[in-house]
Design a protein that fits this description.
single chain; mainly beta; globular; disordered N terminus
Amino acid sequence: MSVNAPGPLRGITTLLLVAGVSAAAVTGASGQDAPLAATSPWKFSASAAVKETYDNNIYLQSVTPLANRESFVTTVMPSVGIAYKSSDAFVASLSYTPEVNVFHSEPEEDFSLHRVLLNLTGKSGQTAWEIANTFVAIDGSDIAPTYSGPGGSPATGGVAVRDRRDAMVERGQFKLTHTMGDWFLRPVVAGYLHDFQMVQKNAAGYQNYADRDDLNGGLDAGRSVGKATWLVAGYRYGAQQQAQVFPAINPVHYDSTYHRALFGLEGQPWNWLKFALSLGPEFRRYGGVVAPGFADVDETYLYVDSSLTLTPTKADTITLSAKRFEQPGMGGRSAYVDGTYDLAIRHKLSEKFTVGCGVRGYNTDFLEPVLRQDWIVSANGLVSYTFNKNLNAEVSYAYESGMSDVPDTSGREYTRSLFALGVKYVFK
C-alpha cells in the first residue's frame, strides 16, 4: 500500500466466509435438508467475450494537453464459474472473470483486472441466510494523471480514469432473515475496502488517491402489509476511514462513525413489479483531523438505497434505481455525498433482437470547505442480437457530459462519446 492505509476491513472476506460456514452448519444440522438429487449437484459454466470500443476522450478533458485524446480499446473477457446445490440448505457459486484492456493510441492506459464473485445462500424452515462478496484486483499504471487545467481534475474526480489504476477493491455483505408469521428479523453486516496501490507525488495537479473503507452492521425488522410486501424499519452503526496523504505536510483525513435509521418497503406483490425502497436520516460524527473551515463535526443528511423493476409485458423491462450515501473523498482531503440515479429500459423486438436505452445522473456534493457540486449526466442505447443459445452480439453508444457548478473551472467540464461492438460466446 502506498499510504498509511486503514486496515479494519482486511478480514471482510474471512469474516463473511466464517459467517457463511457457520450458517451452513446451523441449517445443515436442522435435519430438514432435502434428499440429494439423482443428478450431480455441481454445475460448471464458461464464456468468452470480445469488445472493441472507440473512446473519443479517454482522459475526460476538453482543455489542457490531455484534451480529447482518442483511442480504440480492445477488451477481452473470458469467464469461468462453478455452482453447487444439493439442497436449499446450502447453495454456492464462485466465478472468476479476468479482463484485459488494450488502448491502441494510449498504451500507458492499458490495464487488466481480475474479478472474483462468491455467493453463498441457505434456507432451513423459516430462516434464510446469504453472503455476497466481490473482489477486484486492478493491474494498471501506478502513476496517476496530472491535470493542469482550470479547476484541476475532471468532474467527480475522473472516476473512469482512476479505475484504470492499480488498486484492490472488495465489497461484501452477510444477512440472515428469520420469518415469524407476518414479521421478519434480519441482521446485516456489510463492508467496503478500496486500496489504491499508487505512487504518491507532492506535485501540482497530480492526482493522489487515498485508501478508504466502510464497515457497518445492524438489524432490520419487517411487517407484512399485503401480498408479498413488507414494511421495513432498520438501524445501522458504521465506521469509515480515510488514509492520510503526506501526513507530515497535511494531516487531514475524514474518519467518521455514523448511526443510520432506515425506513422502506420491499417485495414483489405482482409478477410485473418488484421493489426495494429504503431511505432515512444518517447521523454522522467526524473523528479525524478535518480541514480548517469544516463547518461541523456532527452532520445529518438523507441516505437512500432504492430500486424498482417493472415488467409490464413479457418483452419489456424497466429498471429505476437511486443510491445516495456519504464517504471520504478519494483525493484524501475532503468528504462528499455520492449520488447515482439510473433509468434503464429493455425491449425484445423478437426472440433474437433486443433494444435498450438508459440515462444516468452521477453527482458528487462536496462538504465544506470544498463546497463543490459536480455532475456526470449520460445517455446510452444498444441493439443486441442472439444468433443461438451460445452466441450473442451487441452494438452500443454512450454519451456523457461532465459539469461543475464552480465558475471558471473548464478543466472539470468535458464531453465524451463511446461506440462499442461486442461479441459473447457461452460454452454449453
